[in-house]
Amino acid sequence: MADKSNDYKDVLSRRRFVALTGAAGAAALAGCDGSEGTDDSTPADEGGDDTSTEDGSSTEDDSMEVADVRHLSGTNLSPADIQFNPWGQNTAQISNELIFDPFAEFNYATAEYEPAIIEEWEFTGDAFEMVLQEGATWHDGEPVTAQDLATYLRLDRESGSSIWDWGSDVEEIDERTVAITVEGDINPSLIEFSVMENRLATKHSRYGDILSEVQEAEDTTALTEFVDDEPIGNGIFQYGEADEQVILTERHAGHPNADNVNFKEYAFQYFDGNTAIHQALLSGNIESMFAIYTPGNVVSDLPDAVNEYRTPRNGGVGLIPNHNHDHLGRRAVRQAIAYAMDRTQVAANSDPRTKVAPRVPTALPNAQLENWLGDAMDDFETYGRESSETEQAATVLEEAGYSRNGDDIWEDEDGNTLSFELIAPGGWSDWVTAMESVADQLNAAGMDVNFSTVPFGELGGSDGRWANGNFDATAEYWTAAFARAAHPYHNLRHQMVDPGATLRPNGYAYPAAVEARNGNEADITVPARDGSGELTVNPVEDVETLGTTSDSETEAEIALELLWVSNQDLPMIPIQEGLNQTFISSERFDVPAEDAEVAQVQYANTWLPRQGEMTYNGN
Asked: Element (H or E) spanning 438, and its range?
């Protein structure tokens, strides 16, 4: 590998990068946050002293006025319970999107990535090359370097992310340039989705020793147990302080885009549940919220100054069965559940403004079905999108040996009733409404389903019930979600192989899954799509091939086979797709129109300040 590295640097020195431009960006659900500040988190303002003006604003670096104003946003994770290590426990939710810059951001209107801390990138055939934004600095004043980026990527490799299905090594080319080298074939269409949806959170001086320890060990315990509660970020705002209710961030004057921000502070206040956040928006107690399901009647009551930005999720809530369960581990039961649900009614009950039923239950959002299924779509089972197909549900259960008992409840050959608990995160009102509807429909179809809510703090994280498989059936995302869900690779990996690599960890015990998800990497056999014979696949192997092939015909063939298995075996059961709702008040801040292209990102309230599109207006 050393010889290859030297050759590669010589090639790179003669190569001209092509800068990519887009429109705006998307951020991931998970991240990290912190609690108490240190001297390292003091703003680096190297250009001069702050001087206050009569209106309370200040002039920094003699270049612009910065108002002594705080923008107050919302969060539903307590600042006292979060930290900043993206691979650790209790990672943050939204403040990290200001504190750490993303590699790049995805705009759903243009379907392109816009540069952020990675300002240029290119796939050359043997490497994916990235150049850091000129002038990027950590919040302690030190420059962001290639070593910092390489440390992130090397830790990411130890954690087994999807990048390393195709990447072979990390090389620091110069002070600002890093390359992920590639040996063998790779699916070029996946690279941006894999790499750009990351956030640079690893100053080498903070994470270098942990990297060494993890590389020498047989597991990632040193990384996952590290608590980064004194964060050194590089984003447009830096960590200030926190208590149990509020986390405060402060404008980072040393950021290359600092001149786009004309206010000093950005804070996040903790609210327990959607209703409390709705009340805060209605009363004007907060000025933005990054992602909050809000029904139409609440939206109509919001102050006129509050703008609603809706962006695709490329997925939504599904029913995730624990395949170790005596009943849910049987394909016939999962199919019966899919038949018994009226997905259209569930979506309508949740919110017809922001929810839609999947047309075909498989590992693809609606917008991508034609692209990947084509003429084969008619072969796929819809399980009845607009009605409860209770007769078909009964047929598959009877064929599997189930019958109705005296209480009209299905039971198996041994007399065990088809019973299970269905859970959802408490306070997530749209998910709760959806699962209440599902439970009602399944009970009406003769299943014994007990629905309950559980605080998200007990569900998420590496010690939560989801990760440890401590559930019968749960509400969770059935795709990898957001930008990367546009390609079946990430969704198939999420459904069949390793949900922890694409979204939140889930120990759902699907037989084909990796051992870390309580699977055994087994083959899966389903009826062939043409109705003759059987189709056997190994999802771990085939998903890996899908992620590495550069041949478009092979890509299409493998994707279609795995999507068929997803449709027939239902490792996760799709229920609905949604739109994310982000709210920003324009009373004190100038913001784009609700349909503006620049705001088609995840999430507008943290991306727009960096772009100079959310500025204090003096009110």
From this structure: helix 429-444
DSSP-derived secondary structure for 4-34: HHHHHHHHHHTPPP-----S--B--S-----
Question: What is the β-pairing status of strands 448-454 and 306-312?
Answer: unpaired
Return d(Cα 94, Cα 329) in angstroms, integer. Answer: 36
Q: Are strands 64-75 and 263-270 parallel, antiparallel or unpaired?
A: parallel
pLDDT at residue 386, as a whole number: 93
- Residue 7 is predicted with a pLDDT of 33
User: Do the bridges between strand 57-60 and strand 306-312 make them parallel or antiparallel, or are there none, so unpaired?
Assistant: unpaired
Question: Under the phi-then-psi rule, with left for phi > 0, alpha for psi from -120 to 50, and beta for the rest, what region is 184?
Answer: left
DSSP state letters, 580-602? EEEEEE-SSEE---TT-GGG-SB
Query: Can you give the three-state secondary structure of 147-215, one letter per residue?
Result: HHHHHHHHHHHHCCCHHHHCEEEEEEEECCEEEEEECCCCCHHHHHHHHCCCECCCCHHHHHHHHHHHH
Residue 428 to residues 95, 317, 343, 466, 579, Cα–Cα distance (Å): 20, 11, 19, 16, 14
Distance CA 94, CA 561 (A): 37
Please spell the DSSP secondary structure of 345-395, one letter per residue: HHHHHH-TTTEE--SS-SSS-GGGHHHHHGGGGGGS----SSS--HHHHHH
Q: DSSP strand E in 413-566: where?
A: 419-425, 448-454, 473-477, 524-527, 534-537
CB 480 within 8 A of CB 490: yes
Q: How far apart are CA 247 and CA 81, in angstroms?
A: 11
Query: How many other C-beta atoms lie within 10 A of the C-beta of residue 596?
Result: 17
Contact between 412 and 329 (Cβ < 8 Å):
no
Is 573 in contact with 337 (CB distance < 8 Å)? yes
Q: With a cut of 70, say whether residue 411 has pLDDT above it.
A: yes
Cβ distance 577 to 316 under 8 Å? yes
Note the pLDDT of residue 27: 28
Distance CA 492, CA 363 (A): 6
pLDDT digits (tens, 9 = 90+) for 310-364: 998 899 999 999 999 999 999 999 999 999 999 999 999 999 999 999 999 999 9
Cα torsion through 162, 165, 167, 168, rounded to 10: 130
Q: Could you give the CA distance from residue 90 to residue 227 in angstroms, rounded to a whole number?
A: 9
Neighbours of 536 (CB within 10 A): 12
Residues 6 or more apart whose CB falls under 8 angstroms from that of 431 comprise 293, 317, 424, 425, 475
